[in-house]
C-alpha cells in the first residue's frame, strides 16, 4: 500500500508503509497504510458537529455575544479614597500630598477662629491654608484688613472676625460648585459651577498651636482600579466557554485528516541559530524607548493593583490597550532585572519565527519554503526586522506575533473553523496596542477567501449560526479588555489620552517617517533599513508577482498588498513614533523573503521588460539601502552601551555605505561576473535579481554591524554596561544594574581661607559675574557660595584671569575629595584648575595643579546656563598638600565667553546603592527606570493618591520631566510646586564625562504625606458608577 510524502506542497509517492523504518528526510510523511484510529475519531467528531442543530449553534453564538457586550457595564468593586489632614490627634503641620487628577471630587476645609485671628493679627499677609502655589489651588490667608479665600481666579473677602467663638470659615467644593460659609457673619457665599480647587499639598504659615482645629478632607475617585463582581466573573466564564464551544462547533474541511509522521528536520540548525541570536540579543541588545515606562506601570500594578500610566495622563490606565502590561506585571513580582523582563519579547520573537517559516512561507512559497536557502533568507530578514525594534517591554512584539499569525491563518483559511481561529488571534491582539489594528491588513487582502470560507455553510440557518459563532469568538476581545475594566474606565482613559496627547490625525503620518529619517535613536540605520527596503520591495514584488501569475507570484503580490495596507493602517494610530513599525516585523520579513525568491526565480525567464524592471528595482533598492546607512548607530540611553558610530553613519573599513553608487556597483559587478561565468548570450539577465542582491547584502551588512557593535560595547566601556548587568544576573551574582557603577558626591564643609591667603583678580567680580536669571545654588555669600567669583559683565566681551586666595586643605580620606560649583565654560579658551601647595611658615610652595573633568549640558541655553559641580578625588591630590587655590581664565568672547565659580569645599564619595538605602521613596524617571532593578522603594500610586518621593533619579539631559509637567497630566507635579529639588553631584565610575543622569533630593521642609488615608470599597455599575474629573478644555 502506498503512502504520500509531502515536501512543501509537492506530492511524491512513497512505496513504503508507516510501519517500515523511516528514511532520513526533512519532510513530513502522510499515511495511513492501515486504518487510522485518530482519523476515525476526527470523522466521528465532525459528524457530531454536523449533527448539532443549527438553533443550538446559533444560541451558543448569541450567548457569547451578549455576555461579551454586557461585560463593560457589569457591576464592579471600585475604591474611593478619603484624605484627612492633619491625622486626627496629631498637630497641624504642613504636609505634602499628591492626588491625581489634581482636583479631587470633593473638598471640605475648616479654618478655626484661632487660626483666623493669628492670620489677621499681622500687618503682612499670612497664609492659613494653601493647597498649591498656582491660582488654581485653594488659598486662605489674611492680614489686618481681613480674610481672603481664593481659588481659580475667584476671591471672597471676609472681614476680621467680631466674635471670639463661632467664627470658623468653612469651604466646601464639589461637582456642583464651591461655597464659603463665614460662621462669624452667618452668611454663605455660593459659587455655582466653580471647580474644586487643585491640591498639591497642605501648607500653612501658622505654628501648630495657632492652627489647632484646622482640617481638610478630600475625596478622590479612581475609575481604573476595579475588580469584577460576582456577576461579571460569571459572565466572563460564560463568554469564554461559549467561545470555546463555538470554535469546536464551527465546520471544518470535510476531507479526512492526514496522519503526519514527523521526521527529523535537517534544517534544525537554522532554528537553533535564530534562537541563539535572539537569546544573545536579550543579553546585549539595546533598550527600547519605553522599557522603563512599561516596566514601572507593571511594577506599580503588581504592588498596588493600580493599572495607571504612572508618569502622566493623570495616571489614567492604558485601557483599552493594557494587555501587555497586565501580562508583564506578574513577572515583576519575581524580578525586575532587565534580562528577566526581556523574556516575553524574546519568546515572542521565537514564536514569530516558527509562525513565519512554518505558517506563512510554506503557504507563500510552496515547494521551496523548507529549503536551506529560503530558510536562511527568512532567518536573515526576520532578525533584521526584529532586532532593532522589538526587544523589551513595549507592546510591538506582541502585535508582531499576532499580525504574523493572522497572515498565516488568512492564507490557509478554507473553512469557518479556520476563520474562527483567525478571529481568536485578532481578539487577543487588538487589546494590546492601537497598532493592533494592523491585523486588519491581511484580513482585507484575503477578504474574498475568508468570505468564501464563511459562506461554505449549506443552509441559511446554518450560515446565521456560523456568523453568530464567529462573532462570539471575536467578542473575546471584549472579555480581554473589560475583564478588569469598565465602560467608564475606557471612556475616561480615552478622553484623558486624547486631551493630553499625543493624539495625532491620520494625515500627520509623514511625521513617523521624519522620525525614521532623523539623526537620533529613532532614525538609526538598523531601524531604517528593513522599513525602507520593504517599501522599495512592494512595487518590485507586485510587478514580479502580477507578471508571473503562478502559485508563487500570486501569494507574493498579496504579501505586497498586505504590507502596503499595514503601513497605511499605521496612519490611524494616534502617535507617530518610528518604533511602532516594529509591529510589522513579521510582515516585512515575509515580504522580503518572498520577494527575493521570486526575483531569483524570474532570472531564467526574464525578457527585456524584466531586465528593465530589474534596473529600476535595483535603483529603488540602492536608494533605500543608501538612505538607511546614512543613519547613525544611535540607541536609547547611550550611557549603558558605548557603541561605535553612535552619532555618525557607520563606515566599516571606510566603505561609503550611504552612497547608492556602491550598491548599484555591487549589482553591476555580480551581473558581469555571472555573465562571464555563464559564457552564453543573455546571461546578464541576472540583473533582474538586482534588488534581491542589494537586499540580501545590505541586510547581512546591517546585521553584522548591529550585532558586532553591541558585542564591542561592553569591551569598549565596561562601566555602566547593560550587557554586563545581564550577564552578572544570569550568572547568579547580585546585580543592581546601572546603580552599581554610579557614585554620589555629596557636599561637605566649606574650606576656610588661609591666614595669608594672597590671590589676584583681573576681570573677575566677587559675589557677581554670572547670569542674573541663573543664580548659583546658594545666594552669594552663603552656603556653597560663601566665596564666589564671575567674569560676566553685561554688554562686555572681554577676557579675564584670576588666582583665588589659598584655602586650608585638611587631610583627605580615600573616599573624599574637593569640589567647586561652576557656570559657563571651562574649555575653548576658558580654563579652571585646582592648584595645590604646601605651607612653609608664611609661604606656600606650589606642588602641582589638576584640571577637573567638566561635563557641560548638551544644547545648554546661554541665557539660562546651569550650575554644575566639578572636582577632584583625594587620589589626585599631591602628597603633603595642605593648601589649595583656584586658577581661572576667561579667554572666550562668544556667548559663553565668561566663567563663574565658587570657592572650594569638601565632598565625599558614596555608592548610589548605599545613598538610596536611606532616602526613599524614590522616583525613577521613565527613560532609565528599567536599569535600576534594586530600587524597590519606589513611589507607588493607588486610588488616585501617590507617595511623595524623597529622591528623584533624573534622566540624562535634556531632562525628560513629563512626570512633573501639568501640561501632560504629570502625576508628580507636586514636586514642581513644592518639591524644591536640588542636585547631588554624581558620576559614572571611571567616566565622569558620561552623562548617565542626575540624582536630585527634595529640599521640601514640610512633612511627607502627613495625612490619614481611608479607602472605601463599593460595588458600582460599569457605567456611571465612579465620578471623575474632566479635562478643562
UniProtKB/TrEMBL annotation:
Keywords: Cell membrane, Cell wall biogenesis/degradation, Glycosyltransferase, Membrane, Transferase, Transmembrane, Transmembrane helix. Its EC number is 2.4.2.-. This is Putative arabinosyltransferase A. Coiled coil: none annotated. It comes from Mycolicibacterium chlorophenolicum. Residues 78-220 form the Arabinosyltransferas concanavalin like domain. The lineage of its organism: Bacteria, Bacillati, Actinomycetota, Actinomycetes, Mycobacteriales. It is a multi-pass membrane protein. The gene is embA_1. The chain crosses the membrane at residues 55-73, 267-289, 348-368, 374-391, 421-451, 463-483, 525-544, 556-573, 579-600, 612-637, 657-678, 690-712. One of its GO terms (cellular component) is plasma membrane.
Amino acid at each position: 500500500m502506498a503512502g504520500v510524502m509531502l515536501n512543501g506542497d509537492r506530492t511524491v509517492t512513497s512505496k513504503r508503509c508507516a510501519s517500515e523504518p523511516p528514511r532520513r528526510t526533512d519532510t513530513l510523511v502522510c499515511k495511513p497504510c492501515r486504518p487510522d484510529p485518530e482519523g476515525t475519531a476526527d470523522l466521528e467528531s465532525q459528524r457530531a458537529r454536523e449533527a448539532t442543530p443549527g438553533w443550538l449553534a446559533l444560541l451558543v453564538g448569541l450567548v457569547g455575544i451578549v455576555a461579551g457586550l454586557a461585560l463593560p457595564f457589569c457591576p464592579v468593586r471600585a475604591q474611593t479614597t478619603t484624605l484627612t489632614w492633619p491625622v486626627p490627634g496629631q498637630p497641624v503641620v504642613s504636609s505634602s500630598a499628591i492626588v491625581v487628577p489634581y482636583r479631587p471630587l470633593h473638598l471640605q476645609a475648616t479654618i478655626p477662629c484661632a487660626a483666623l485671628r493669628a492670620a489677621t493679627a499681622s500687618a503682612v499677609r499670612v497664609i492659613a491654608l494653601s493647597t498649591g502655589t498656582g491660582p488654581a489651588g485653594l488659598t486662605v490667608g489674611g492680614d489686618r484688613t481681613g480674610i481672603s479665600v481664593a481659588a481659580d481666579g475667584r476671591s471672597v473677602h471676609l472681614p476680621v472676625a467680631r466674635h471670639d467663638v463661632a467664627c470658623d470659615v468653612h469651604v466646601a467644593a464639589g461637582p456642583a460648585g464651591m461655597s464659603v460659609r463665614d460662621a462669624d457673619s452667618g452668611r454663605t457665599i455660593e459659587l455655582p459651577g466653580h471647580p474644586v480647587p487643585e491640591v498639591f499639598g497642605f501648607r500653612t504659615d501658622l505654628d501648630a498651636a495657632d492652627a489647632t482645629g484646622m482640617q481638610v478632607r478630600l475625596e478622590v475617585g479612581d475609575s481604573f482600579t476595579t475588580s469584577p463582581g460576582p456577576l461579571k466573573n460569571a459572565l466572563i466564564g460564560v463568554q469564554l466557554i461559549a467561545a470555546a464551544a463555538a470554535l469546536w462547533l464551527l465546520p471544518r474541511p470535510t476531507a479526512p485528516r492526514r496522519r503526519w509522521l514527523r521526521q527529523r528536520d535537517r534544517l534544525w540548525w537554522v532554528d537553533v541559530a535564530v534562537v541563539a541570536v535572539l537569546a544573545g540579543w536579550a543579553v546585549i541588545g539595546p533598550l527600547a524607548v519605553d522599557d522603563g515606562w512599561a516596566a514601572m506601570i507593571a511594577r506599580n500594578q503588581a504592588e498596588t493593583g493600580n493599572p495607571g500610566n504612572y508618569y502622566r495622563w493623570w495616571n489614567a490606565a492604558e485601557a483599552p490597550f493594557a494587555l501587555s502590561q497586565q501580562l508583564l506585571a506578574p513577572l515583576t513580582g519575581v524580578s525586575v532585572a532587565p534580562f528577566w523582563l526581556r523574556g516575553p519579547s524574546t519568546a515572542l520573537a521565537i514564536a514569530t519565527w516558527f509562525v513565519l517559516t512554518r505558517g506563512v512561507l510554506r503557504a507563500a512559497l510552496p515547494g521551496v519554503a523548507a529549503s536551506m536557502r529560503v530558510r536562511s533568507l527568512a532567518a536573515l530578514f526576520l532578525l533584521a526586522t526584529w532586532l532593532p525594534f522589538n526587544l523589551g517591554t513595549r507592546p510591538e512584539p506582541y502585535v508582531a506575533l499576532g499580525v504574523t499569525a493572522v497572515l498565516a491563518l488568512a492564507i490557509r483559511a478554507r473553512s469557518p473553523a479556520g476563520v474562527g481561529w483567525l478571529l481568536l488571534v485578532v481578539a487577543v491582539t487588538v487589546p494590546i496596542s492601537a497598532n493592533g489594528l494592523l491585523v486588519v491588513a491581511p484580513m482585507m487582502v484575503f477578504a474574498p477567501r475568508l468570505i468564501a470560507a464563511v459562506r461554505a455553510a449549506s443552509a441559511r440557518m446554518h450560515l446565521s449560526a456560523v456568523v453568530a459563532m464567529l462573532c462570539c469568538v471575536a467578542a473575546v476581545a471584549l472579555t480581554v479588555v473589560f475583564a478588569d475594566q469598565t465602560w467608564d474606565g475606557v471612556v475616561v482613559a480615552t478622553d484623558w489620552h486624547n486631551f493630553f496627547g499625543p493624539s495625532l490625525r491620520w494625515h500627520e503620518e509623514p511625521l513617523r517617517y521624519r522620525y525614521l529619517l532623523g539623526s537620533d535613536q529613532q532614525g538609526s540605520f538598523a531601524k531604517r533599513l528593513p522599513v525602507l527596503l520593504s517599501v522599495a520591495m512592494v512595487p518590485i514584488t507586485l510587478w514580479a508577482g502580477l507578471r508571473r501569475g503562478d502559485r508563487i507570484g500570486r501569494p507574493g503580490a498579496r504579501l505586497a498588498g498586505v504590507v502596503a495596507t499595514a503601513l497605511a493602517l499605521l496612519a490611524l494610530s494616534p502617535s507617530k513614533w518610528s518604533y511602532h513599525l516594529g509591529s510589522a516585523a513579521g510582515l516585512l520579513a515575509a515580504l522580503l523573503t518572498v520577494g527575493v525568491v521570486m526575483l531569483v526565480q524570474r532570472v531564467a525567464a526574464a525578457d527585456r521588460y524584466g531586465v528593465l524592471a530589474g534596473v529600476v528595482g535595483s535603483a529603488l533598492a540602492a536608494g533605500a539601502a543608501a538612505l538607511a546607512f546614512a543613519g547613525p548607530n544611535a540607541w536609547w540611553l547611550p550611557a549603558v552601551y558605548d557603541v561605535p558610530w553612535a552619532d555618525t553613519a557607520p563606515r566599516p573599513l571606510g566603505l561609503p555605505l550611504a552612497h547608492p553608487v556602491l550598491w548599484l556597483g555591487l549589482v553591476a559587478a555580480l551581473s558581469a561576473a555571472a555573465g562571464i561565468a555563464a559564457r552564453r548570450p543573455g546571461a546578464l539577465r541576472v540583473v533582474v535579481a538586482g534588488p534581491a542582491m542589494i537586499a540580501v547584502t545590505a541586510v547581512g551588512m546591517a546585521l553584522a554591524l548591529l550585532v558586532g557593535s553591541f558585542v564591542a560595547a561592553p569591551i569598549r566601556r565596561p562601566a555602566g554596561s547593560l550587557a554586563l548587568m545581564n550577564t552578572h544576573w544570569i550568572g547568579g551574582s547580585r546585580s543592581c544594574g546601572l546603580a552599581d557603577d554610579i557614585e554620589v558626591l555629596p557636599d561637605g564643609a566649606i574650606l576656610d581661607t588661609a591666614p595669608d591667603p594672597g590671590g589676584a583678580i583681573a576681570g573677575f567680580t566677587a559675589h557677581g559675574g554670572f547670569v542674573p536669571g541663573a543664580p548659583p545654588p546658594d545666594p552669594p555669600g552663603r552656603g556653597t557660595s560663601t566665596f564666589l567669583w564671575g567674569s560676566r559683565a553685561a554688554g562686555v566681551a572681554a577676557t579675564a584671569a584670576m588666582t583665588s586666595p589659598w584655602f586650608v586643605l585638611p587631610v583627605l580620606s580615600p573616599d573624599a575629595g574637593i569640589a567647586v560649583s561652576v557656570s559657563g565654560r571651562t574649555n575653548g579658551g576658558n580654563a579652571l584648575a585646582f592648584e595645590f601647595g604646601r605651607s612653609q611658615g608664611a609661604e606656600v610652595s606650589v606642588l602641582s595643579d589638576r584640571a577637573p573633568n567638566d561635563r557641560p549640558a548638551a544644547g545648554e541655553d546661554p541665557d539660562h546656563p546651569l550650575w554644575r559641580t566639578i572636582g577632584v578625588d583625594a587620589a589626585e591630590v599631591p602628597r603633603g598638600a595642605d593648601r589649595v587655590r583656584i586658577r581661572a581664565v576667561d579667554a572666550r568672547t562668544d556667548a559663553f565667553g565668561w566663567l563663574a565659580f565658587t570657592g572650594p569645599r569638601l565632598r565625599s564619595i558614596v555608592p548610589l546603592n548605599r545613598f538610596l538605602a536611606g532616602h526613599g521613596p524614590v522616583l525613577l524617571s521613565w527613560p532609565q527606570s528599567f536599569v535600576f532593578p534594586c530600587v524597590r522603594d519606589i513611589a507607588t500610586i493607588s486610588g488616585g493618591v501617590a507617595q511623595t518621593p524623597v529622591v528623584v533619579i533624573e534622566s540624562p539631559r535634556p531632562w525628560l520631566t513629563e512626570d512633573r509637567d501639568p501640561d501632560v497630566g504629570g502625576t508628580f507635579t507636586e514636586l514642581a510646586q513644592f518639591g524644591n529639588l536640588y542636585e547631588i553631584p554624581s558620576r559614572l565610575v571611571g567616566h565622569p564625562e558620561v552623562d548617565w543622569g542626575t540624582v536630585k533630593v527634595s529640599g521640601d521642609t514640610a512633612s511627607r504625606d502627613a495625612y490619614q488615608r481611608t479607602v472605601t470599597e463599593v460595588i458600582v455599575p460599569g457605567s456611571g458608577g465612579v465620578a471623575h474629573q474632566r479635562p478643562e478644555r
